[in-house]
Design brief:
alpha/beta
Length: 353
C-alpha cells in the first residue's frame, strides 16, 4: 500500500473532510474530456479504450483541466466499464452509443460465469496514478468507479438504457440471481478502487449514475446494502469518499446512509435539488457536492455568474443547516459544447467568493 500524501493546504480535501477550507473548492465532473481542444486532439489518434489503458495518456488527459482551469482536484481519466474489462467481460465503447456488452448477463448461469477483477488487467490504471501523484504536486487526485447497480445495468441491458427494463425485471423476478450479481460487482468495484487507493489516489468517487431510475423502497432493498459494502470495505484507507447519482433526490438519505462508513462522506447532488434541501435529507454532517446545471454553462457569462453565486450561497445555507461543508461542482458532467474559457472563469469566480 502506498504512503498517503500529506496535502494540508488542499481546499478540496479540507472541505471533503468536513473542515473549513481556505476557499470554496471547485472541480468538475468530466472536466477532462470533450470540452477541451487538447483532449480532442489526443482522442483523434486514440480510441477511448486505448486511452484508458495507456498510463501516459491517462496522466496527460487527467492533467489537462488542472493546467487550463486551475481546479482544486484532478479526477482520474478512465471509464465506468474499465473494471468490467479487468474482470474479463468482452465489451467495446462504441462512438455515439457508449459501452456495448458482447454477451449480456441475464441468467443465473451468466452470473456464475462472471469472473473477479484481475488487478494485472488494470495495471495501466495503477501506473497512471503513480505518474499523476508525482506530477500533480499539491493538487489532490480523485479516483473513481461505477457503483454495483450502474455496472449491473450495463451488463444486463447490454449497453446504455433509457428505462433499465431488463435490469429491473431481473431485480423483481429473480432476486436471488440479482443479489448474486450485485455481490460479484461489489467485489469488482472494491477491487478497482483498491488498485487506485494502493497506487496513491487521495479520494474516491463512486458513480451510481442510473440509481435515479429506482424508487426509494427498491433502492433500499436491492442496491443500498451492496453500495454500503463498497464504502465499508474501503473505510480503512481513511480518504474522503463521494457517492453520486443523477435524479436521486428521493434517494439522497439512503445514499448518504450507504456512504456512512466512509471516514469522510460526501454526497453529490444534481441540479434538481437545492443543497439546502439536500442537507435536510442526508445524514447530519455529510458534506455536499454540486450542483450547477451543466446547461447553464452554455447560456452566457452573466447567467453563469448569477447561477454560480446562487450555488455558493446555497452551499453556505446548507452548511448552516447541518451539512458538513460544500464542494462546488456541476450537477452532472461538463457538456461537450461548453466553452473552456467559461469553465476557467467559473473557477476564478468561485475562488473569489
Amino acid at each position: 500500500m502506498s504512503t498517503r500524501r500529506d496535502l494540508p493546504e488542499s481546499p478540496y480535501l479540507a472541505a471533503a473532510g468536513g473542515r473549513k477550507p481556505q476557499r470554496v473548492p471547485v472541480w468538475f465532473m468530466r472536466q477532462a474530456g470533450r470540452s477541451l481542444p487538447e483532449y480532442r486532439a489526443l482522442r483523434a489518434r486514440h480510441n477511448m479504450l486505448a486511452a484508458c489503458f495507456n498510463a501516459e495518456l491517462v496522466c496527460e488527459i487527467t492533467l489537462q483541466p488542472v493546467r487550463r482551469h486551475g481546479v482544486d482536484a484532478a479526477i482520474l481519466f478512465s471509464d465506468i466499464v474499465v473494471p468490467l474489462l479487468g474482470a474479463g467481460v468482452d465489451l467495446d465503447i462504441v462512438p455515439a452509443v457508449g459501452p456495448v456488452i458482447t454477451s449480456p448477463v441475464r441468467t443465473a448461469v451468466d452470473v456464475d460465469g462472471l469472473k473477479p477483477l484481475d488487478p494485472q488487467r488494470v495495471q495501466p490504471v495503477s501506473d497512471a496514478v503513480a505518474l499523476l501523484v508525482s506530477a500533480l504536486g499539491d493538487v489532490p487526485l480523485i479516483g473513481f468507479a461505477g457503483a454495483p447497480f450502474t455496472l449491473a445495468s450495463y451488463l444486463v441491458e447490454g449497453g446504455p438504457s433509457r428505462h433499465h427494463a431488463r435490469t429491473k425485471a431481473m431485480m423483481f423476478a429473480e432476486p436471488h440471481t440479482w443479489h448474486a450479481l450485485m455481490e460479484k460487482l461489489t467485489e469488482i468495484t472494491v477491487g478497482f478502487l483498491r488498485v487506485q487507493l494502493d497506487a496513491g489516489v487521495d479520494a474516491v468517487q463512486v458513480f451510481d449514475s442510473w440509481a435515479g431510475a429506482l424508487s426509494l423502497a427498491d433502492y433500499r432493498a436491492f442496491v443500498q446494502p451492496h453500495s454500503a459494502r463498497v464504502f465499508a470495505a474501503l473505510a480503512e484507507h481513511g480518504v474522503p469518499m463521494t457517492h453520486f447519482g443523477v435524479g436521486t433526490a428521493e434517494l439522497l438519505g439512503a445514499m448518504s446512509a450507504a456512504a456512512k462508513p466512509a471516514p469522510a462522506a460526501v454526497i453529490g447532488v444534481d441540479w434538481r435539488t437545492s443543497l439546502t434541501d439536500a442537507a435536510a435529507r442526508v445524514e447530519p454532517g455529510t458534506v455536499l457536492q454540486g450542483n450547477l446545471d451543466p446547461a447553464v454553462l452554455l447560456a452566457g457569462w452573466p447567467v453563469v455568474e448569477r447561477a454560480a453565486r446562487a450555488v455558493v450561497d446555497d452551499g453556505r445555507r446548507a452548511s448552516e443547516a447541518g451539512a458538513g461543508g460544500h464542494v462546488f461542482n456541476l450537477g452532472h458532467g461538463v457538456l461537450p459544447d461548453t466553452d473552456p474559457g467559461v469553465l476557467t472563469a467559473l473557477v476564478s469566480l468561485v475562488h473569489s467568493l
